[in-house]
Amino acid sequence: MLNFLPPLVRGIIASLLFGLNVLFWPMLVFVFSILKFLLPFSPLRRLFNRILPWLAENWISCNSGWMRLTQNTKWDVQGLEGLNYHGWYLVISNHQSWVDIFVMQHLLNRRIPLMKFFLKQELIWVPVMGIAWWAMDFPFLRRHSVEYLKKHPEQKGKDFATTRLACEKFVHTPTSVMNFVEGTRVTKTKHARQQSPYKHLLRPKAGGMALSLDVLGEKFHSLLNITIVYPDGIPTFWKFLCGKVKRIIVRFQAMEVPKQLLHGDYAADKDFRVTFHRWVHQLWQEKDQQIQLLMKEVIGTPRIP
Questions:
Q1: Could you give all domains of the chain from N- to C-terminal order, each with its CATH number?
Q2: Who has greater pLDDT, 69 or 129?
Q3: Could you give the C-alpha distances from 270 to 116, 265, 273, 274, 276, in angstroms and in order?
Q4: What 3-state class would DSSP assign to 30?
Q5: Which pTM value belongs to this model?
Q6: Measured on CA atoms in the order 249, 198, 98, 28, is the torsion positive or negative?
Q7: Using 50, 70 and 90 to split pLDDT, how confident is the model at 174?
Q8: Which of 252, 255, 244 is nearest to 280 (CA)?
Q9: What per-residue confidence (pLDDT) applies to 2?
Q10: Are 135 and 36 in contact (CB under 8 A)?
């Protein structure tokens, strides 16, 4: 609607609306989070566990509102049919920009349960948001580096134990467990440093997926495999706010996970770990080829991130 305005003006308007949204909805979430913390009684917790996702979904809807108001993005989306709001999903996606999160939330809000992202342990100290994420049962994980584990071998396996405990919270409530399998946003530098075998992706990290499937197993209706492509180049968040992202391509694929991969000991069973890595590698090869084809169709010459 406001796409006739200069990009800078649209960026300022979108930033203000985004800021107001961040002030309003998280504060409500914060209030109910405090109540959930102070009143740890089962009936009240169940009530708060219904209220908090509802608030978060309204927050996402308001984000979609300012996006529609300030942007004129052409969306090319396929695969949203047949999703179940009352189901369990393991959601995976390639990761290029903070914009990815807004894209997925915009398209999936109220189509599947609220997505729960794996967060770094340090983020629990973010003012207001930290306790809000905790109250909505977002998993907080402490990832130890290889160097740290060499010095402190007693910590080995605790990352997996933490992930398991986080996933066990989702057994009784329909949930979408979101995992950026690459673990970080793709850049040319990271791509080169990893010597990634993929043209458009970083190497996948399979541990979080394996543990989610081990704990929740048959609870998952399916694996929701998302591929996001920005034909005009990977945008910064400011570029997104300014309405300069002209085209976004998104492909959703709901697929079954092989039954032999649902309940395996990823940490201790080497054969299972090799089999799981092989399956994830195949998924990533297909995703890489899909991105290559989509970009070739749109711009003729594929881009390497």
A1: 73-299 (3.40.1130)
A2: 69
A3: 29, 9, 5, 6, 10
A4: helix
A5: 0.88
A6: positive
A7: confident
A8: 255
A9: 83
A10: yes
CA–CA dist 229, 274 (Å, integer): 29
- For the stretch 181-240, pLDDT in tens is 998 899 999 999 999 999 999 999 888 888 888 888 788 888 999 999 999 999 999 999
Q: String of b and e for 31-42 (b: at least 16 CB within 10 Å)? A: ebbeebeeeeee
Question: Contact at 8 Å (CB) between 24 and 72?
Answer: no
Q: Give percent of the chain with pLDDT exceeding 90.
A: 52
Write the CA distances from 182 to 35, 47, 80, 234, 270, integer angstroms.
36, 35, 23, 16, 21
Tokens linked to 111: 């189509």
Place of tokens 């989702």: 170
In sequence order, what E strands does the chain have?
Answer: 74-78, 89-93, 115-117, 119-120, 140-141, 176-180, 222-229, 247-255
Look at the alpha carbons of 19, 20, 22, 27 in this order and tell me if their dihedral is positive or negative: positive
Tokens 């909805």 identify what position?
A: 25
